[in-house]
Amino acid sequence: QQQVKQSPQSLIVQKGGISIINCAYENTAFDYFPWYQQFPGKGPALLIAIRPDVSEKKEGRFTISFNKSAKQFSLHIMDSQPGDSATYFCAASAPSGNTPLVFGKGTRLSVIA
Amino acid sequence: NAGVTQTPKFQVLKTGQSMTLQCAQDMNHEYMSWYRQDPGMGLRLIHYSVGAGITDQGEVPNGYNVSRSTTEDFPLRLLSAAPSQTSVYFCASRPVMNTEAFFGQGTRLTVV
């Protein structure tokens, strides 16, 4: 049973465009929702994270939108650049039961000039 | 500050061989985890630990053992390697649950 479902699997965006990656979850106990960025040959690194007390969080060109009632959250990359080309993972964890992070299957983003 | 260090970076094993993937962190984090990454499958949890002496199974634990004798180290043992264990393995640590996880650079393992 996949706890976090991520789409699309791959995405091609023109330079300067908006990249949008979506995730959905089932476990209502989840209350921490990070996005990780991974470049080839490297480990994932935290990009931005949100908790359900806010509906949106923005850091530079990266924004997380969170819809608690729909159990969905998404990553928006504004003014996408070739340097943003990477694999992006959404994840979630719960505060109780020592729950580790569970990840989506990832989205490979290619930003073309 | 080294963060999370994984060794080796690359390894080729023959079917049936055993080996240990090493993971060490110098951030005094209580929580450590092992994930494997396969194309199209994302990051799947193998085992995790919430502190020295405490470990638990994740989503795909079969064929792997772990132990946590110190806060710093969390080795992953492959008992009898199989081609299905060909993957990239990542170790991660977190200071407390529900906060940022820090990942190592990964170990690329090939079992032939």
Helix/strand-derived category of chain B reads mainly beta
Order of helices and strands of chain A: EEEEEEEEEEE
Gross morphology of chain A is: globular
> How would you spell out the order of helices and strands of chain B?
EEEEEEEEEEE
Identify low-pLDDT runs of chain A: none
Q: Which bin fits the share of residues in helices of chain A? A: under 10%
- Helix fraction bin of chain B: under 10%
End-to-end Cα distance of chain A: 38 Å
Name the assembly state: heterodimer
What is Rg of chain A?
14 Å
Sheet-strand content of chain B, in percent, reads over 45%
The total strand number of chain B stands at 11
Nearest-integer average pLDDT of chain A: 94
Number of helices in the DSSP assignment of chain B: 0
Figure out the total of helices of chain A: 0
Structural class of chain A: mainly beta
Write up this protein.
The complex is a heterodimer of chains A (113) and B (112). Chain A has 113 residues and is an all-beta fold. Chain A has no helices and eleven strands. In chain A, strands 2, 4, 5, 9, 10 and 11 form a six-stranded mixed beta sheet that branches. A five-stranded antiparallel beta sheet of chain A has the order 1-3-8-7-6, with no helix packed on it. In chain A, strand 6 and strand 7 form a beta hairpin. Chain A is globular, with a radius of gyration of 14 Å. Chain B contains no helices and eleven strands. In chain B, strands 2, 4, 5, 6, 9, 10 and 11 form a seven-stranded mixed beta sheet that branches. The mean pLDDT of chain B is 95. At the A-B interface, strand 5 and strand 10 of A face strand 4, strand 5 and strand 9 of B.
